[in-house]
Amino acid sequence: MQIKRLLVFTLTTLFCLLTLPGALGYLAKEYIERGIYLNNLNTALHLEISDYQQGWFSSSFNLTASVLDEYEESHIEISTLQVQLGHGPVTVINRQPGIGAFYLFTQRKTDTSKQPSLIAFARAGFLGNIQLNLNLNMDSSDSQETKLQPLIASIEADYEFDEIHYRIHWQGASSNDQNSGLNVKNLRLAGAIERKDDQSWQGNTEFKAEEIDVPNLPLRIKQLTFSIHNVINIEESAQATHLIILAKSNDLKTPWSHWQNLTLDARIHRADLAAMSAIYDLIEKVYLEFDSITDEYAQLEYMTAIQTLTPALLSDRATLNLNQLSFYSPTQKQHKRLTGKIEFPDLPEYMDDHLLSLIAKTKGKIELTEEGSEPQQIEILKGKTSINNKTLSQSLFN
């Protein structure tokens, strides 16, 4: 009897090992196509698979990434990867065995600075989860002036991509070139996204930076933590988006201000995050048109994006509750703290891309507390800012 049971168990195991891989291969293709469909629907990066070779134990295909050139009305190819797809139920990745329905593996070596070498693998389990790991070695050029450290990313999701958790860590970059100085250390991005439907997502994101120093801008950030909680909604009709924005930084220097010991706690109600698509347009322009993100023409593109993004994000009667903005000003050697509320207007569609129109119709009241002084009342009305009923003649933040 025991021999019969052992024989039945052995035959059943062999049957599953031989028949499951083929069935899982077809299932894997459906999930890959679904993921590509959702990506193309919600991002500016267009993905396409071709030359799909379906096998019983493994398959292969080419994955092409491109961006849309609005002027030529065609897609510009960024990269094409050859992807190997293995079918479970037992998978081996980097010599590590595991139980999974299927796995992907791809790698690319390149000598061009815009296309880093890449190693990527993913494993899908029977319990409805997918794990994706990417390792980009971005220092692919022979230049000794700029050293780019690897970027490591991991993503966990369910089969339908209804819930996604992600982590990205870039160790940084450094440059010895005096004309284009750069020093970046330990950038981390982590968060979760939940899909309500094909047009609507919500979640939270946290960004941390140990140091970002670009003297030519000038820009210097040290020990920054920035988080956005609650809703990320890309549906154009979504007018009820609520955000919680928290930030801390030991040192933040920009061309316009220099703050130390910065703390920000703000709530934005009725923001329209469909405007965030402007960020995709900006990334596309910088990637295609400029060799460096610090190019003077690229900086003009940044300012143009701010001109269009800010009104689209904050119009339609959005409100900003500033629970706290506190910092130390090295130039004035004072601690400052601002609290209050700002109400943004409902702009007509033809005015949505004008920052001056937004400023002219914005109103609000903010209390400014400076070390050693009485609190001051700041009022924003009809494009003018006043302190204690006197027109403001200089910036508060310097």
Automatic annotation (TrEMBL):
InterPro entries: DUF945
This protein's name: DUF945 family protein
